[in-house]
Specification:
By secondary structure, the protein is mostly helical. Helices cover about 85% and strands about 0% of the residues. The protein is built from 4 helices and no strands.
Length: about 130
Amino acid sequence: MNMSKAQRVFLGFVGIFGATGVAAGAYGAHALSQKLSPYLLNVFQTAVLYQLIHALALLGIVALLSQSGRSKALLISAGLMVMGTILFSGSLYLLTLSSWRVGLITPLGGFLLISAWIVLLIAGITYKKQ
């Protein structure tokens, strides 16, 4: 299977998000369960969950790209998903681990994730077999 540079980059993010998501989940369950309040532990777990879900979704997009060629909508969706995951989960990690107030970064990340899913919907609706 020949993969484009974009597919290889996005597949790299799948690996990064997957590996760090599992590591963060283990860290939260073992090291943070006694250090964080229940609320902050829940916030941390939300960051892990969203990161892992979007790693799998991104893997699906990479697979779709191998079937559909260079779909602009799929590439845009993948890019939005990467940025959204970094901003959303990353800002929640910062909040829980450093008490750093992230302001509008978390909602921006959430908006990017929602946008990624909407663009994926558009990709499905407008798909034309080549």
